[in-house]
Amino acid sequence: MRTSLALTIVLLGSLAFPALAAAKGPTAATMSGPGISGIRHLSGDSEGGPGSPLGALTMAGGFFPQAFGQVPDPTHTTRPQGDLGPRYSIRYDVPGPNGDAVLRQDFYPYARPDPLTYMKPGQTFWDGHLTHGGWFTAERSLPRKLGLPTQPPTSSSTQLWRWSGVGGGVLVFGAAIGLLILRRRPHAKPVSA
Q: Is pLDDT larger for residue 95 or for residue 18?
């Protein structure tokens, strides 16, 4: 009797939540952002744990709670305070009954104190399902697992402005020293004939 009751509950549960029973992770992802030339392809098993770049990203970066929702909910609806650092764009290919869908996620690997991801709520996948979305605090090791440097890359334009500021400062300092030297120099008296 107990066995048939348990079987009935499991059967009814699987009928009530077909989307969750069929939940599958992305088959591929790409990442673009500062310091990456073009796009970086992230491969591996998205559901197999952190053993591959794609698995590390989906498991440690909050893909599943952001896409499907989760109880308890580890996501937040408001943007965390502070400087998030550079933003990287993630594009996931998610298989579904009517073909692949594309879901997008923002990744902030240099946010303090921990890396963050953000998925916009309401992205459509699986023939009408909508992403839960939200902000997710990622594992601190995720940037390293994705091959990102420990410090945020600086753009060449930022470096150019930094060096031009230093050069301008040196130029102004040199001009000021030159004026002081000219001012202190004794003036020659005109020679009379």
A: 95
